[in-house]
Structure formats: C-alpha cells, structure tokens
Amino acid sequence: MGLTLMRWWHLRQARGNVLEVGCGTGRNFSYYDESKVTKVTAVDSVPAMLMMAMKKGMNSKLNIGYDEVNTQDMKKFPDNSFDTVVDTFGLCSYEDPVQALKEMSRVCKKNGEGKILLIEHGKGSYDWINRTLDRGAQHHACSWGCIWNRDINHLLDAAGLKVTNISRWHFGTTYLIEAEPANIATSSVNGVVETGVKAEKCKSKAECEKCTSCTQ
Ligand SMILES: C[S@@+](CC[C@H](N)C(=O)[O-])C[C@H]1O[C@@H](n2cnc3c(N)ncnc32)[C@H](O)[C@@H]1O
Predict the structure, then answer these.
(1) Mutate which of 18, 44, 89, 143 for ligand 1 pocket (most atoms within 8 A of beta carbon)
(2) Which of 78, 89, 142, 206 is the most buried (most CB within 10 A)?
C-alpha cells in the first residue's frame, strides 16, 4: 500500500476532538473525515512547519487550531482531553520517543473513549533489511534528523500503550497502528529502552563537523 492510501485509510478513523502531534506541513489535513472530526489541534515544535501547515489548512473545511508544542512535554493540554491523538512519521524524529508516546497517552481519553492512531517507520521484519538500516542509520540521522531503525514495537511496549490493531508494510518497516492509551504511565519493559539504535542526531553543526559518519 502506498503512503497516500495509508494516510487516507488510517486517518478516516479519527473522530471528535483530534490532536495531531508533529504535524509538519499539514499533509494529513485532507485525509480527515470532516463529518466526524469536530476540531483538529495541529502542533509541531518547529514554527516554520506550523506556518506551512497553516497555509495548507486555509484550504480545508476543518476547524483547525495551531500551536508550537513539543510532543514530549505537552503540559498545556490536560489529561484525557482528546478523542483521537494522531502521529504520522514522528517517532523517528523525537529525541525521546517513549516520552512522546507517554504524553500522547496522557492527553488521550481513557476507558475505550479515546484512540491513538500512528503511522510510523522503523525496524523491519527481516534481518537483511535491518542490517541495511543499521548500516546507514548514523548518516541518515545526521542528514535528515530521522532515526530510521527504531524498534517501534519496543517503544509502544515501553510507553505502555495497548495496541488494538497493527499492520506492517514495506518489508515490515512501515507500521499502521491503532492503540488505546496506557491507564498509568509506566513502562512494561525493564531496564534501558533502546531508542537510538546506534544512531544519534548531531546536536550542532560543530559536533557534526567532527562526526565521521556523515557530512551535514
Ligand atoms: C518526518 S516529519 C513528519 C511530519 C508529518 N507528521 C507528516 O506525516 O508529514 C516529523 C515532524 O515532527 C516534528 N518534530 C520533531 N521533533 C518534535 C518534537 N519534539 N515535538 C513536536 N514536533 C516535533 C518536526 O518538526 C516534523 O515536522
């Protein structure tokens, strides 16, 4: 399945008061069902992204609000405040993806009333593809700020989300996930959660100049 079809297929499940985190340029706006969504709060930590999203949102009939918010720290939103929380291709770019998932969980309604919809990419289903991803991970992270070999199932487990439906595509590297929020924000995984898998984004241009794995 192509990504356009995936976005349409998955996001038409969004209902009610929707929070979209890491919204980027607003690519998902056209896939929401206007008859089921009452409001979309679109957030991103990068103002330039929000500006592009706003421009795209002007052509939409949806009621969209915008805010500069870090997914890992969404204290401006109370617990249990959204019917649907959406994240597409965000877990590869967050510094702490488990914390981001815990925050999505916190703000999502509990007891079967809320849903978390994710489309993500990461570690695949086959050793050969994972070896390729691992080999290029550092270079890709430095070039694009995207850690493409994260173990998505492990992150979901660590954040305590209850996965109700998952399908994997493109040799298992693309994930369509429906989940219910964790009731309590605890990790079901003991020990350190591996979120970087040998790849880290360089934190500054100077650091990257010393980096032997990429040329930023
Ligand atoms: C790969 S893009 C995906 C954009 C969009 N969701 C899509 O599917 O096209 C990742 C987005 O996450 C945003 N982002 C990265 N770290 C973030 C954070 N800590 N909090 C909020 N947004 C973040 C980036 O600015 C970027 O817009």
Answers:
(1) 44
(2) 142
CA of 171 to the centre of ligand 1 (A): 24
Residue 88 near ligand 1, beta carbon < 6 Å: yes
For 75-111, letters b (16+ CB in 10 Å) and e give eebeeebbbbbbbbbbbbbbeebbbbbbbbbbbbbee
pLDDT digits (tens, 9 = 90+) for 104-146: 999 999 999 999 999 999 999 999 999 999 999 999 999 999 9
For 44-83, write each residue's pLDDT tens digit.
999 999 999 999 999 999 999 999 999 999 999 999 999 9
The answer to whether the CB of 44 is under 6 A from ligand 1 is yes
Pocket mutation for ligand 1, best pick of 3, 6, 23 (most atoms within 8 Å of C-beta): 23
Domain assignment present for 215: no
Give the CATH number, domain containing residue 127: 3.40.50.150
